[in-house]
Structure formats: C-alpha cells, structure tokens
What we know:
Elements: H1 4-19, H2 31-40, E1 43-48, H3 53-65, E2 74-78, E3 86-91, E4 107-112, H4 118-126, E5 129-133, E6 141-145, E7 149-152, E8 154-155, H5 158-161, E9 168-169, E10 171-175, E11 178-181, H6 199-202, H7 207-214, E12 218-230, E13 244-245, H8 247-254, E14 280-281, H9 289-298, H10 323-331, E15 336-341, E16 353-355, E17 357-358, H11 365-369, E18 376-383, H12 389-403, E19 414-415, E20 436-439, E21 442-447, E22 452-453, E23 463-464
Amino acid sequence: xxxxxxxxxxxxxxxxxxSAGLAHGQQLPTLAQAGAAQSNxxxxxxxxxxxxxxxxxxxxxxxxxxxxxxxxVLTVTPSASGDTNFFAWSGIPPxxxxxxxxxxxxxxxxxxxxxxxxxxxxxxxxxATINQINLNDTGNISYVSGAATxxxxxxxxxxxxGIDDSFTGGVIKEPVQLGIADVEPAALVGNNYxxxxxxxxxxxxxxxxxxxxxxxxxxxxxxxxxxxxNNGSTGSNxxxxxxxxxxxxxxxxxDGTITNWKNATSSSGAAVTTSHATATVVNREAGSGSRTAxxxxxTHDECVxxxxxxxxxxxxxxxxxxxxxxxxxxxxTAGAITYATIDNFNTTKYPNLTLVTINGVQATNINAAQxxxxxxxxxxxxxxxxxxxxxxxxxxxxxxxAQTIATTAHTVDINAIPDIGSPSNTPSLPVSxxxxxxxxxxxxxxxxxxxxxxxxxTCSVPASDL
Length: 466
C-alpha cells in the first residue's frame, strides 16, 4: 500500500499504450494527475445518500469518460479491509461537457456516502467542511488493477469515527458542493435530525433552516425501498423462504408495539409464526435518509401530529452509520428487521435476509410505477450556493443526467420522476410503454417513468401525474 512511486512508474507506460485507442481528451489520468487536479481545484465534492451512490458512480463515470466511458476514468474506492465509504473518480471530460471542461483538463469527482443523507445536507446549511479522499496522500493510496483502479486506505470506522468525522489517513477536509439526500431536507428534523453528529464538527441546523434549504433542493429520481427480515439465522423461529407482512404489522414492529413475531400478521391476517420469535429493530442512525423514509412511511412520524416513530433501543450512537453495516448486522441477528433500497437484496452477501412482500405485493420498481407498491421516495440534490461557476456547472450536468430516463443510471430500485428532466419524462399508460432497458448503449435493468409523484414531500400520498 506504500509503494505508490514504484507502482506509478511501472504503469506509466501502460497508461500511454492503453490511451492510444482513446479519443483525444479521453486519456486515462494517472494518480499523480488526479492529485494535481485536486490541488488545482478542478473538482466536485459530493456527499450524502448511500442508497444513491451506485447510481451516481455510473453517472459520474459517464460524465468524465465521455464516449470512452469507464475506460477513460480512474476509479478510487475504499480499501476492502476498512470500514469507510469514500469514493473518487478522475477523468478528462470532452470539451463542452460542462463549463470548465476543455478536453484537456483532468477533473476529479468525489462522493462520500459515509453517514448518508445527513452529510449531504447539514454541511451545506452550516458551511462545515468534512472528510473526502485525499488523492495526494500517496502513502495511503495505490493502484490495485492496472492503471484504472486504485484503493484509498482510510483509518477508522463508521461506528467509531462517523459522529465526529475523525477518520485518519487518506482524507482531507473539504466543503460539500453537491449534497444528495434520499428525502427532501425538510424531512431531516425531529426524530430524524442527526442528533448523534457532533455540532463542533458538523454544526447544527434548526427545522426552519432545513425548510429554507428545502426550497433549493431539486428532484432526481425515485428510490424503491424494502423491508428486510432475518428468517435464516438459527433461533429466528420464523418460517424459511418468502415472508409476507401487512403494512400495519411492519409499522408496529418498527415502533416497538410488537416485539414478538408471533403477534405480527401477513396481508391475509394470518400469524407470521406461532412460535416465540423476538423481533429486533436494527436501525440506521438518525439523519439517514433510509431511516427517515421508513419512519415517515410506516409510522407517519412528522407527518401526523402525535404519531409514533421508529423504536431505537440502541440509542443514537449505537445505530449503524452505513447501509452495508446495517444489513450486515441484521444478517447476523435472528429475527431482525431493517430497511434499505431493494438493490441491496443479495442472498450471497446477506444469506439470512429475506426481502418481504408488503400487503402481498413484491418490492419492485415496476410495481411501484404501476401504483401497487408505494414504499418509495424521491431523492433530491442540493447545490451549495457558495460553489464556483465550474462546480455549479458540473453539478448541474450530473443532476440533469440523473433526472432524465434516457440518461439516468439503471439499478433495480430506480424509476424516473414524471415531468422533470430534459427531455421531460412524460408518463403514460401502460407503464410498460415508458420502459428504458439500456444504459450507455448496453442492456441494463429496466426502469420506468413513474406516473405518480410525491412532489418533493415524503409525507404526501403519491398523486397521479397523468
């Protein structure tokens, strides 16, 4: 991990040779060039939603790589041996891609999903700087796959270093220039305010301030969520295979009213199990968009006066600060229940977790678009008003590509929002007539134009846009 100089010298010739087949202005940058771009300020710092990161990874690669795509983009990921969530991409975008792109200049885009939505919103409100990968820390960054991929070794963990942003090693404090949230900023209040995050580092914001910045947030795309239950661990005492739960039972388990699965019912009213089976809520931290989306949808917290809220026996600092961590914890806790976007359903990685049907309906993006499944939210983006012209332009280019069904990323949890984007996403029936099954010229998971919208209010009942 500490032989960057040797490795960089070894790959220089490979880069030159590998770039020969690329168009001018689309050569693969070296780590040294990526570091120089960060020093020169040809960068965009993004932070926020972990649910949206896979989509943005694809969008960023397309933006920086132009027609050459991933072949022209250096990707930097966290070390597999660590427990942090910092990413970076470096490329030479074609001239005219955005203001500042001239076909010769290296640009870096960073995405920190460490902490989730809170890190995309709060630092913009408070003007706090938070950690991103430091591409110039050659002692903590190195190539792992030819010249196209590198890893950054960042010291610390989500649980121990997230609340005070005390990560060490290959990181540097920078402003958030584009914030991504799973929900509108105004939803991150009350029981969903990021209370565990130290104000000495992140600052603090009132509900009024969250509401004010909400006005500048723009819709990106729909994210379809699901409920995950551990019925595979020894001692869960839950039936193996598919599980169906009524929406009301899920709400009662999440708010702590039901603590034993034998008191939960399916959509038909049948008991989930007749055996004693402890139901354990495994939570993301307050300030997480995933937690907020789940809380508002099932318990109506902050939507209805006097409503209940997600039960949190672990307390603010005992929760999990990333999607991967919360699913891993639920996977090892018999009878656990948790929540995440449905693209995280992975029977190899999380073999004990089942993605349940809710009221008898499977969690899919086509069911969401057809109005049969409404546990979905509208992800939003907030551009920092203190951004420079070039940063605002590159942020705008990413947002525009995310909004439009023809260019947005294709993962199984995404749908396009009606009547946004350019060209505008025009909904119609049947929903299958608005399908998009290719991304960047290749076959990809199908996504649809959802004819329903929440109009940037997670509390709202989806309304038809037809």
